[in-house]
Every structure is written in structure tokens, then in C-alpha cells.
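Can you give me the bound-state structure? Components:
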Amino acid sequence: MSHAAISDVLAGKYPLKETLTIKGWVRTVRSNPNFAFINLHDGSCFDPIQVIADSNLANYAEIAKLTTSCSLAITGTLVESAGKGQSFEIQATEVEIIGLVEDPDTYPMAPKRHSVEYLREHAHLRPRTNLIGAVTRVRNCLAQAIHRYFHENGFQWIATPIITASDCEGAGEMFRVSTLDAVNPPMKDNGEVDYSEDFFGKEAFLTVSGQLNVETYCCALSKVYTFGPTFRAENSNTSRHLAEFWMVEPEIAFADLATVASCAEDMLKYVFKAVLAERMDDLEFFDLRVQKGVVERLKTLTESEFVRMDYTDAIDILLKSGQKFEFPVEWGIDLSSEHERYLAEKHVGGPVILQNYPKDIKAFYMRLNDDGKTVAAMDVLAPGIGEIIGGSQREDRLDILDARMHEVDLNPEDYYWYRDLRRYGSVPHGGFGLGFERLVAYVTGVQNVRDVIPFPRAPKTASF
Amino acid sequence: MSHAAISDVLAGKYPLKETLTIKGWVRTVRSNPNFAFINLHDGSCFDPIQVIADSNLANYAEIAKLTTSCSLAITGTLVESAGKGQSFEIQATEVEIIGLVEDPDTYPMAPKRHSVEYLREHAHLRPRTNLIGAVTRVRNCLAQAIHRYFHENGFQWIATPIITASDCEGAGEMFRVSTLDAVNPPMKDNGEVDYSEDFFGKEAFLTVSGQLNVETYCCALSKVYTFGPTFRAENSNTSRHLAEFWMVEPEIAFADLATVASCAEDMLKYVFKAVLAERMDDLEFFDLRVQKGVVERLKTLTESEFVRMDYTDAIDILLKSGQKFEFPVEWGIDLSSEHERYLAEKHVGGPVILQNYPKDIKAFYMRLNDDGKTVAAMDVLAPGIGEIIGGSQREDRLDILDARMHEVDLNPEDYYWYRDLRRYGSVPHGGFGLGFERLVAYVTGVQNVRDVIPFPRAPKTASF
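Here's the bound-state model for the whole set.
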């Protein structure tokens, strides 16, 4: 017999007095000689459902001894809840014990508050906690909303390659991928490893971004996006960095910077609305237990107009702010988090899209503006976090692209295929990148991105 | 001014006589002294739209010289099409030339039939062809439908790790991920590389499957799935193998093999229906130019009942078939493609779900049946391809799991976290794996999986 999801039962999808079977894991049990109250959880929503098991059940003695995380199948009658909180509970007619917990006293997920560090060490069991369960459902909701947003707006999802042999910018921070014997790799006469004998016939790495690849599809299908894992071999042990993280990178043809900025604003509002509509149960938990105000912050963002501001104007505002910053402000600097947060939180009091940055602090592929000093780049700054999205219009003029590559010491021949897009029916186009874990951390208020991805990868960290 | 997607124009979403702007790339141009007929394509659907440019346009001389892949912005009036085929065309009032094609005579994607091998060498330009454009839209449609199916059915998407340091089965076929100096890695006294100095503090690899990891989330959230890249360092140069491919792996708690099989059948039918409903334009192209009958095959599958058959019965059928097989049939063999296709195509004449395979040809984690000889494994065999999905109920009994690990020489300690799932509230559960590229190849009729992923990775192949 098939069983009911607890989310459906609590949402009132079944009529009162119906006989139902539910299956899940015990959160808590309280018992007295007459009754046991079982809170059963199946992960389908934040709340467990309360089950009342009467002492006349044949296996009542075993039921009364159940502990957290024992697995059960319960059949019973759906009744109105007498207690406060929930509208429904189950009056059990049968409680089948499926799996017990070996030595409950040493069970690592015993029902008490655990530190996030402790939970990371038990990443295989932490989805059983309120915190990680809620993160998982919100993360799923956001991912589904992202796919849905792009699908509804005519974008094609493109699986850009994970393994790349392109000589890319930032190669120093890349992971090498190889099947060569690590102790005795084949060598060339000049003392270098002979990667022609490696699996791919050349040195290969894990991708740091799908952008250059996805531009090739953009220049044929107009609207495309990636949603896949990317990698940084940076030795950063911060709460905002992972060695392996998921990135969303849309790319739009026949688009200028304003179009790219509007897409970023629309997409964020769409996914925030989705999570407010679909996962209020989990959001209320985050608001109560993780970061006060996350719900209000999301609601405000969906209703705010994202203010557009030029980098040059932002520098003026910061200089005139009278504010003391750790890093001094002058035109040409890369803004740091304190500057970004001042602009979004203090000056504007809402989200800001900063535009037209100095070319020297931005990547070679960003489109040079007519002033010759700035490029058509944009960052979306959100209150409470600072930069959440970075994007740009791409340089679509071959001669200027080549000049920029020479300026930053890149060899245009290594990018022949990227250059071809500018030789054959070039079009203005642009896009942005959204670090998915940072989005999940922002929505949930969780401080460390290691707690919003199932099995975090970071320096000295690759367990499970 | 914003522009219209050609898919919307051809679908009749704009009224006749409306003034529209469309943007895209030239497929073909025919011109005479009075008119030019431009077929403009923007990737939003299979068909380009026909545009008529009158010779009284100011830049008519340039228009008449346009070649394939030049990029244009065209403004004009939507009119009924005089020709056959399409209902609508555009009477241009302005043709803005955005980007020309440098030396059209050497343009690699000149409008003629190219071999798939040639297209792979130009993977950055091949999305401009009918073939790869259609593959991309169908691939996107299938991916969206997969996410939608699981979302609608209460599954949570889980991003299982790409980099893994687990000592897994099949490590011989894994790619090593490292940041160590390849020429002079730090060495231990025993002559082995000292991976404690590597980025992750131990030897790390690219994942071959997210299944074991996703089981940890299944045993907390009940219904979960992965959809991400997986890797095999197999030196296989076949039309069915890639070194990097995307896999879909649902995992269901409180499920037996029958539930897993039903989920596989439901999911396949759901995504086949989606592609029939949404991408008939591309499917008709595949039917006409790639493989006759693909549309009929999909339609038939959505209406078929997938026949359940025991492995043992299948062996009997093959033995009694009178058929001459290259690989001889006896109980205990791993079926090869010729056997699977005989069963699906000749014997049943439709899809078959083969169940309960000999334990010795299946993985250690599959649930041992009461006969002690077979495991609760299943493969979905589809006409025209053979195995398209493989899955199983998982062994949820710790003692039997341990015994199986010893039998196949795995060290249970390496799997302590996997074993913990059986120690703490174990539940019957199971799932399956679907190779996404094989699904796309099956739906489109494209013979080689290298042509259904944007940038294929295979031995000696990692360009772009």
C-alpha cells in the first residue's frame, strides 16, 4: 500500500477520518502508561506530524521505548488536533517498527542543539536535523525556480564542460585532472611532464566558469544558461568560499548591459517569490533560529526597484559619506564588502546595481565603453551581503578584444574559438554569474556556505 | 526596443499587420533586383522565418550580398505568408546589419551538409547547424522535464559532490584531482606520493556516481535525486561512452524494487510526453534526417505498459528462442545488447523491465533476495537501444551488507558513513541511474553520444 507524504497530510489534502499510512523517522516520543505521542518526520516539509498511539496497541511496550530516528510505518485515522500548532494528527491503529537506532545513547544526531562544525563532521547524518533539512528544501526550491525562470523565458540549459584543457585565465587556481602515474609520470626531454600521454592527450583542469563556452551557444541560440559545478583551487578558508560550488550563468544575445541587469533583477525577484510562496515553513525556522529578519528581507527585495548606479558615482558617494572605511576609497579601486554594504544598506537602503567599472579591475572579455576607461560590467549588491551577482556585456568587436588580450598578456591564438564568435556574425551579448551557494546562504541567513551544500569541499576537506 | 522571439512569431502570438523587430542570424538569402528573401534564425525554434526585403530599402545593395550567419536586426510588418510551409513572414521596413561574416568562402559552417566528425572539430560553431540546434533544444526540454517530474512528485534535488576522496569501487577508472607539483610531488619514505600535502589532504578523484552520497539524504528526506556530471576514465572510444557525462539518480525511501521500477516507467513516460508536446518541430527533423521512426517510437513508449520480467525467465526465453547469439546464453551471464534487444524488440515488442539479477554480476549494495542467489536489481530495456536505466533496491540490513562487502573485498571501515544509514533507523530504499546523454541520443536518434553534449570529453579529446 502506498503511503501519504506528511506535507500533504498537514496541508489538508486528505479528508478527516480517512485512514492513512505515513512513513518516516521519529523526532521525539513522549509516553505514559496510556498513550505515546510520536512526532514523525519524513522530510517532505519542516514539521513532523503528531501521532497518538494508544496503549492497547499490541506492540505498545516497544513503541514506548522508541528513540529519535527510529523508522516507522504508521497507519491510523486522520483527526483534528487537540493541541495547539497543527490542525491535524493521526490516531494510530498500527505502528510498524521498521528500523531501530543502534545504541541511542551514542547516536550522533541525538535531539539536542549541535554546532555547525559538529554537523559538518557528520555530513551523512546532518540532513536529519531541522537546520540541514530546511536548507535542503530551500536549496531545491531555489534550483527549481531558477530552471523554471529560464525555461519560461526561452533560455536553453547548456551543460558546459567540467573538464577543460583550455589555457584559461586563472590557471593557477585550477585543479589538474589526470590519470598519469603520480610517482613516475612520463617525462619530456626538457624535464616537463609529457601530458601527451595523459588521458586527454594534454594537461587538463576542472573548469572555473562555463562562460566562455556558453557564449558559443549564445551566439547560435540567443538565450542560454549554465547551471553546473565550478571549481577554485584557492586556499581560502572563509565562510564564503568553497573549492567546489554551483554556478548559474545566463548569456543573452542582442543584449546590452541594461538588458543583462534587468534579467538579473527579474531572476532574483522570481526566485525570491518562489521561495516565499513555497517554503514559508522553512523560512520561518530560519527567521526564528538562524537570522532574524530573513523573511522580511526577501519580501522587501521582491518589491524593491534595484537602483542603477555608475561606479564613478558610487566612488563620489563613498568619498562624501564621511564614513571611515578600512580600505581607502579612490577611483580605480575594487570595492570591498564594506563599501558595497554601505552603498546598499546605508546610502540606498535597498538593492543596487553598480555599473561601468574601471577596465583595469575587470576581465578582458568585458566590453570597453566609449570613454576608453571603463567597461560595461555590473554587480548586483544586496543589503546584508554585498555582491551577489556579477556580470557584463561582452566585447563583441574583434580588434578591441584582441587589444585587451594583448594588454593582459593573453595569447589570442589560445582563444581562437572565442575569437571566431566575433569573426562570424558577431552580436552584442552579455550575461552574469550567480554563485548558487551564496544565494542559498543569503536566502536562509546561514553564515557559512559549507552548510548550504550537502558535502562541502574546501582545503583539507573532502570527506564522504 | 525589445525584440520578438521567432518561435513566438511563428506560433501566431502576434497579430497580423503588427510591426515587429526580430534579431538573429541569416540562414540563407536569395535576391533578385527587386527583392531579397532572407531566412532569419534565432535558435528559439527549429525554423527560421522568411523576411522579404524590398529593393527600395536604403541599404538594399548590402542586403543582397548577405551570407549565412550574418547577424541582423529586422523591423517590419507581420504578414500572411504567400509561400507554402509557414503561415507568417515579415515584410521588412528596416534591415540593420549587425555583424558580417569574415571571408564567407572559408566560413566553417557554410550552408552544406557537414559530417558529424567535422562538426565535432568545430564544436564552438556547430550549435549554428540544424542538427546541433535541434539536439540542444531537445536536450533542454528533457532536462527541464526531468526536474519538473521530480519536483511535482516531491523529490528534492541534491548536489552530490563532484570531487570525492572516498575509497570507492571502480577507483581504477577514476580521474585524479590534484594541485601537487606534477614533476616533483612531495613523497613519503615508502616511495608513494604524500597526498597529505595535496589540496584536500588526501588523494581525491572525480565521482563516478552520486548514489552512495544521495542515499544519506534519502534516509532523511525520503525522496531525493541527483542530476549532475559524473566521470569515467575508461579508455572507451565507442559511440555510447563519454569520459564526462550527466547522470540522473533518484533515490526513494520506504520503497521496494516494484516502486523503483514504477518510478522509472513514470519518469520516462513523463519526459517523452514533454518532448512530444514541446519539441515536435525538432523531432520531425530527426525523424526525417537522422533516424526514421523516432517520433513513432516515442509515442508508442508513452502508451506502452512496461513488461516486468525476471532475469531467470529472460534466460529461459533466450535459450528457447532458437536465435543465434554472438555471446552464448546461460544463467549467470551479464546480458549483452543483442540479448536485451531481442527481449525488448522481438519477444515483447516493447519496453521491458528485467528484474532480480544474479548477485555476482551486480554491485555489493543491491539487496539480496530470499533465494540467496539474486539481488533486487532492475534494468529498463527499450526497443532500439537496450538498457536505458539501471537500478535496484539497496541492501538495508547491516549484517548482509557487511557480508557482501567482504565477499567483494571492500573494507567496511571505508564505508562507515554508508553503514551508519543501516545502523540508525534503516529503511528499505532504492533508486536508479539514467545516463542523460544516452536518453538524449535515444530520443533524437543521434547515433553518437558525442553529438548530444556540447563539448564531448573522451580519450584524447578535451578541446574547447
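A couple of observations. The mean pLDDT of chain A is 96. Chain A touches chain B through 106 residues (CB under 8 Å).
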